[in-house]
Amino acid sequence: MKFSSMAWRRNRWVNLALAGAGILVILSYIFCRDSCRFVSGSLMGVDLKYTGLVYLAGFIFLVLLAAREPVFFYLAAGVGGEAFLLGYQLIYNRYCPFCLSLAVVVLALFLINFEGKFWKPGLGLMAGGFLLFSLAFASHPTPAYGSQTEPGFVAPIFGKGAMEVRLYTDYFCIPCQETEEAIEPVLTELVAREAIRLILIDTPLHQETALYARFFVGTLAEDRPFEEVLRLRRDLFLAARQKITDPEELRAFIRERKVPFNDPDFDQTAAFFNVHLTEDEIDSTPTLVVIRKNGDKEVFKGKREIVEALRKVAMS
Predict the structure, then answer these.
(1) What strand order describes the sheet that includes 157-158?
(2) What number is the average pLDDT over the span 274-285?
(3) Strand, helix or coil at 60?
(4) Domain ranges in the chain?
(5) CA 215 to CA 248: how far, in whole Å?
């Protein structure tokens, strides 16, 4: 397919519109207010979200230069990269709506700008893009804690009900904070009634979460009342919003609130968390897993689903 200058000018606006749509997809993921997804991946150490923004910015630059052949070659390499990411999602059976939407944008741009006479080098660049991602892409399909050794085993389990409720949140996930604030009253009621066995599982979507999880578990050593546990979690969410990532600064932050802290064997707690993270195939936060007395399991994701699910549990 060979475009005339007039056709290229018409397609330029389509190109810019689609690239803008792709940027909006990425930004909507970055600033998502309902849940945080674990599609944490990087290319040569750079988070894929920002790699995608840079890629689309480069595409817009080439379009504005009216560099038709470079645009085609650039998109061919991008299609190769997207092919790798699609294959990765297929292998692990984990699908990211934002990633798939961006792949559709890149493929549409490639088809719009297809240059038949350059199909051979284009195919080579696709292979190159695929190879680059296969060598430089890093991720893990399920968030998990690494091996950590810290100075008996404490698990954040509350209530003795026959129904098990597992709540997966991340301190650095804004929707998680909003969800925990919204469900505090119903959780307090359900735990007090011994209607549920609640497990609070800190989910390491963000690198700093492991530090916060260790400090949270350390405050449970004195068997605190559940209401105090919830207050402490509010404090930790506040610390995360203040971007406290230094262990001593976080220790001082907790000390200011006059909360006793003991160094637990977090290695065992992390292993306990990992078992549930893997079993429930957690890929986003907040996530609520409800296991009923008959063994039936239900999974709810995002603030709205979780609030409604717990409301129904309280009414049952």
Answers:
(1) 157-158, 196-202, 163-169, 287-291, 297-301
(2) 91
(3) helix
(4) 5-139, 157-315
(5) 11
- The Cα–Cα gap between 39 and 137 comes to 12
Q: Is the pLDDT of residue 6 over 90?
A: no
Give the residue among 159, 179, 178, 145 at the shortest CA–CA distance from 288: 179
Phi-psi label, residue 169: left if phi above 0, alpha if psi -120 to 50, beta otherwise = beta
DSSP letter, residue 141: S
Class of residue 65 by CB neighbours under 10 A (exposed 0-12, middle 13-18, buried 19+): exposed
Check for a shared fold between 5-139 and 157-315. Answer: no
- Kindly report the pTM of this predicted structure: 0.69
Calculate mean pLDDT across residues 49-66: 93
Q: Read off the pLDDT of residues 13-35 as tens digits, 9 standing for 90 and up.
A: 899 999 999 999 888 777 766 66
For 126-158, how does the pLDDT look when each residue is reduced to its tens digit (9 = 90+)?
999 999 999 998 775 556 554 333 335 678 999
Return the SS3 of 70: helix
CATH topology of domain 5-139: de novo design (two linked rop proteins) (1.20.1440)
Which residue matches tokens 């988070």? 47
- The angle, 0 to 180 degrees and rounded to 10, between the axes of the packed helices 226-241 and 209-218 is 150
Residue tagged 């599609």 (tokens): 39
The residue type at 83: A
Encoded amino acid at 143, one letter: P
CA dist 76 → 86, 112, 167, 206 (Å): 15, 12, 42, 32
Helix intervals (H) in the chain = 5-30, 48-64, 68-92, 97-112, 119-136, 174-192, 209-218, 226-241, 247-256, 266-279, 303-315
pLDDT digits over 220-259, tens only? 866 678 999 999 999 999 999 999 999 999 999 988 988 8
* CATH-assigned architecture of domain 157-315: 3-Layer(aba) Sandwich (3.40)
